[in-house]
Amino acid sequence: MSLRAKLTLGTATAASLLLLAGTATAAEPGAPGIGDPYYPNAGNGGYDVSHYDIRLNYQPANDNLSGTTTILAKSTQNLSRFNLDFLLKVSSVRVNNKVAQFSQSGGELVVDPRGTLHKGAHMTIVVTYSDTPSAYAVDGYTSWKRTPDGALAIDQPDIAPWWFPSNNHPTDKARFDVSVAVPTGVEVISNGIFNGTAQQINGWTRWRYRSLQPQATYLAFIAIGQFEIRQSTAPNGQPVLNAYSERLGADYNASVASIERTPEMTEFLETQFGPYPFEAQGGVVTPGIGFALENQTRSTYDTAFFRRGANTYVVAHEVAHQWFGDSVSVQGWKDIWLNEGFASYAEWLWSEHVGEGTVQENSDYIYNMYPADSPFWQVLPGDPGAPNQFHGAVYDRGALTVHALRGEIGDEAFFTLLKQWPSEKRNGNATTEEFIAFAEKLSGKQLDELFQTWLYTPVKPAAAPGAAGFAASAATLTEPKSFQKIQETHELLAGHHH
Question: What sequence ranges are listed for the domain Aminopeptidase N-like N-terminal (predicted)?
Fold first, then answer.
C-alpha cells in the first residue's frame, strides 16, 4: 500500500470515529417510574438490581432505624443520574466508591454520580440513613407498623421505601442479605436462610438472613419484637423457621396448630404445582397487621385468622403464593389475579384433599352466592383498577376463572399447566396475555372468549364453571365444610392494602 493510500485510509478512519463519537447515545437520567399504570412512580428506569445488602440497627424504644444498604446493579443505558424509591432521611450516597450528590422529594431519592455511568456498567451504590419510619405516610398511609414490642415492615404493594432504598417494582427482582441489630432479648425475623446471630459489645444482637433466589422488593420483610422461634427440618430437607409473637394470648395454640403444618401443605402443593421454588419454609404470626402476606419463604399472618381455631386454608393460600406471586410475579399490578386467583384455587384443592368439600362444590357455592345484580360481578379481575386491586372478586372470581379454564381444557391439560407455567416462568414475571397464550398453546384450544367472559365482562357468566357446568340455585346447594373458613380468610385478605 502506498503512503498516500495509507494517509487516505487513516483520514477516512479518523472521520468515521468522529462520526461514531458524535452519534453515540448521550447520557440521560433514568426514568423516575417503571411505567406501571396503577402506580406510575413505582420502580425506576436505567438500571437493574442484582443484590441488596441491608445492614441495620433498630431501637424499638424510639422507633429509630439506622444503617446502610449496599445495592449491586448494572446500568441499562448511559446514565447521568438515577432514582431510588425511599422515604427515610439519607446522610450519604456513594456510587462506585465516589461520593455522589443526591436530593430527596416525594419518596424519590435522586442520585447524581458526578459522571456518566455507561450502559452495561457495574454499579455499587451505598446509601447510609437514619430516621423514624413510622413518621412517614404516602397518600395518608403508613406501611411501617410499630408494635408495643417492636415493628413490622410488611405490606403490599410496597413496604420497601420505609426501610431500604430500592428499585421498588416486582419486575426488578434481586437476591438479599438482611441483618438487623437490636437490643439483646429482642428477636428479628426475615426471609430465607437464617444465618444465626452475633453478639455485639454494646449489649445488642445482630440477626442475619439470606435469600438465595430472586425476590421482589415488596416480599422482603422484617418482623421485630418478642417472638418464640421454632426451627425444624421439612420432609424435603429444607430448614423451617416459624415465629410466634408473645402477644398472641388465647390465639397461640390455634396459630401453632396451623403454621406448624406449613411443610405438610408445601408437600401437598408440590404434587399440584411442581417442586417448591425456594430454599426455606416457615411463617410468622403476630398481631398488628390485619392481614396475611406471602413474604417469600416466610409468610406472615395476623392473629385474626386463628381466633376461631386452627385455619389451614390461609396457610394453603399463602404457601401457594410461593409459586404464584413470588416465583412467578406480576409484570404489572393489573395482573394481580394471576397471584390471587391461583392462591384461592389452592384453598379449594386443599379442601378437597382434606375431605372438607370438593373443588366443584366450592366453585358452585361461590358462583351461586353472588346474585346477578351483585356489585361483585362489576369488578373485573383482569384489570380491577388500583382501588379494587385486592377486592374479593379478584380472589373469588379469579378462582372461578381458574376452574372455568379447567372445565374447558380438561384435567390432563389443566394439571399439566399448573406445573409447567410456574416452571416456565420461575423467578420471572408474567402478564395475563402471556398466561392465555401459554394455556392456548398447551391445550390446543382458543380461549379468548373464556377469559373475556370471566376476567373482563362486568356481568355474571351464564353458567357456573367446571366440567359439569353445574348451576343450581343457592338454596339447593350444601355449603362445603371448608366454606366458612375460606370466606373468613378472604374477607381478611381482601381490601387490606393501600
Answer: 50-219
